[in-house]
Amino acid sequence: MKDVDEIRHIAAIDLGSNSFHMVVAKVVNQDLQLVSRHKQRVRLATGLDEHKRLDQSAIQRGIECLEMFAERIQGFSPENVRITATHTLRQAKNTAEFIEQARRIIPYPVEVIPGTEEARLIYLGVAHTQPQSKSILVIDIGGGSTELIIGHEFTPELVNSLQIGCVSYTNRFFPDGKITRKRLNQAILAAEQKLESIVRQYRKKGWETAFGSSGTIKAVRDVLAESGHQDSSITPSRLEKLLDKIVDAGSIQDLSLKGLSEERKPVFVAGVAILYAVIKDLKIKEMHFSQGALREGLLYEMEDRLKYADIRLRTAESLALKHQVDIEHARNVKKLAVQFFEQLAPELDIPAKNTELLDLLEWSALLHEVGLSISLQGVHRHSAYILRHTNMPGFNTEQQELLSTLVRFHRKALKLNEMPELTLYKRKHVIEIIRILRLAVVLNGQRSDDPLPALKLTVNDHDNWTLNSKEKDWLENNKLLHTDLETEQQYWQSAGWSLHYT
After folding, report:
1. Which Gene Ontology CC terms are recorded (predicted)?
2. 180 plus 248 within the same structural domain
3. Could you tell me the pLDDT band of residue 461, with boundaries at 50, 70 and 90?
4. Which residues constitute the domain of residue 67?
């Protein structure tokens, strides 16, 4: 029995379109205890111009907020901090510029996550902070997107993220702050049009309890509570009365509602319009507010890192099964790739604790042939397309992009000018992983039942790689493999790399 409980501190930061949030917690053995919450209105989405570029003032507001957050988590180890960016940084064409500036302020990776991954994490945050129900519906209205999830216990089953947000709808329908019934109805109708494609599916699946999370729904709950509704639940009739009060105000500036903060007021009207559309179309009779949201979802997932890894492993295995991948061959490729990675990691300056790159190498080996379900011709491009555009729970946008890149370059010509710019991974490490994967694929190209001889891969000056075996005649006995290695050697030469084999 331990005399002192093992304690570690963890933090989750959510870079939203309207506000940045940080939650800090401590994990005492298996118990997660929230220590503090921090929120700053940044209004990032208002800085997005018609060309989808963030202006410098919006970037600066975000950086100043991160400076404050950085003070609170100074000294936290990298594995105990997760920073995720959502809709606005998904949309912005100069996101890399923001991340580069953020990196100088807060020394932890910023993950831009897809909308469906945002929705999954929101559900996780709500599910962990509410009494268990047989099934729950979770709605989260953010500055740039709205997430809708139905799940059972801790498992999301129906997940969607729509481009409906209180900041974007404020700019679109109430740009001068004037409120009319016509404008309000236009905002509601626009939200309903976005919801139209998924409403039937959600109604059919059904749920036991509906929860709303984050700022818009919290603000509505607070206003209703101040209006004399003791249970402060959100119902269609209460929202309709609230909409009448909003119209009576005539303008956002003159909107005066008990419980509504000055910070929330600029985007409140659009948020209520979106919420009304959701409640009306999904026929929600009653909605309750949940304190849990995206950042809490991140915390609970961080509480057990193995669980996070398991989610991505399940995702990869499910994709392999769906696309009828030759699992035995994929595992042989993965086994050899891992062997080469472990041999080379010290020579390639890859940090010993960086299991992330090894994980991504393993998943790329498992999934490099998903494109065969489309065609053998151009399989590497087909595989890359599938991995770039498929919903992959557990993976952030850049991890998914990197997986797509690895399988894109696992064979054929090395057109490295087509490699995307990444912020979480160094280009030199990505290239090294590509080389390892290519060699593992080539060496298993015959799909033979006969095991390969013991192979040793060494590196000199990064660009000079040598593959050798103690079995001197291993290539003489396999002329097809020898030919494949000669072809691979030519591809490497065209990229300015050097490959030798003995």
Report:
1. plasma membrane
2. yes
3. confident
4. 7-112
Residues 273 and 354 in one domain: no
Q: What's the sign of the alpha-carbon dihedral 161, 407, 155, 6?
A: negative
Q: Residue 471 domain-assigned?
A: no
Question: How much is the mean pLDDT over the chain?
Answer: 90
Q: The tokens of 63 are what?
A: 């950086």
Q: Where a domain ends, among 265, 299, 333?
A: 299
Strand order in the sheet with 155-162: 155-162, 146-152, 136-141, 209-213, 287-290
Q: What is the pLDDT of residues 410-459, one digit of tens each?
A: 999 999 999 998 888 889 999 999 999 999 999 998 888 788 889 999 99
Residue 457 is assigned to a structural domain of this protein: no
Question: Amino acid identity, residue 463?
Answer: D
Q: Which residues contact 287 (CB under 8 A, 6 or more apart)?
A: 139, 210, 211, 212, 217, 233, 234, 235, 279
Residue 313 pLDDT class (50, 70, 90 cuts): confident
CA-CA distance, 9 to 355, in Å (whole number)? 21
**Structure tokens of 28?**
């005492």
